[in-house]
Amino acid sequence: MHITQLASFNASDITIEAQEQLYQGFVHVERISLRHRLFQTLSSSANVQDELYTPLISRELIRRKEAAGVLLYDDTQQKFALIEQFRIGAIRDQDSPWQLEIIAGLLDGDESAESCIRRECYEESGCEVDQLEHLFSFYPSAGACDEIFHLYSANVNLPLEGGIFGLAEEGENIKLHLIEYTELNSLLHSGRLCNAAVIMALQWLKQHLLTR
User: Fold this and answer.
1) Do the annotations mark residue 120 as ligand-binding?
2) From which residue to which does the signal peptide run (predicted)?
3) For the chain, which residues make up each domain, given as ranges?
């Protein structure tokens, strides 16, 4: 099997010694003490049990709900949609804490990613979405957070102009931008895009435009 399809280990190669909840709010934070298998144990020369695992490791883990996002584009108008909003994680960004993003949100309970996207699209852009194309599911920051992000695209009928959207009761103040396809390359190289989902989505759009 090709290396890109094969994981060296799985969850059974981790031994959790202790778990402690440190904080519970918008996110949850846990401290986990564990040991995990070493790559050296894949060698046939490894035969001492104490050498199969790491020493005890302590890590803080941010627990967060799954999220889903979508790049809305309109081949008829030759435009795509991005939103702009304040983000606490970018509060010290040298350019601006107001980030350009795709429409996205957290899954509510046992809600599907597709249902979440349709709800968020209406709240954040006024657009209704029929067909969704799944692009990727990925961990945005697996070094510290267990969030999984489901990324989609959708060809929709975009409005003729942007506007202000979001739920005031949730502290949302969201500006919808409609951007011409001709501006895609300059935006990708502008340094204005600072999160993985929007960069991945626009790289996909670039490929879509090349293969139409």
Assistant:
1) yes
2) none
3) 14-63, 67-211
